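Figure 3 (text version): structure tokens given as input.
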């Protein structure tokens, strides 16, 4: 399956990424430091505090 994976990734990069950039959906940089911050998820309460 490995030989086919790189071809699919190339097609995604060449076709999908430019379209996402055109629509303003593709992020070039992230605002937060953690994935939780970038996805807009609330920070859970600290149960030890």
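Below: residues designed for each position.
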């Amino acid at each position: 399956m490995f030989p086919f994976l790189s071809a699919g990734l190339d097609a995604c990069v060449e076709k999908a990424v430019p379209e996402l950039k055109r629509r303003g959906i593709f992020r070039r940089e992230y605002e937060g430091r953690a994935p939780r911050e970038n996805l807009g998820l609330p920070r859970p309460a600290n149960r030890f505090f």
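Residues 2-23 form the longest helix (22 residues).
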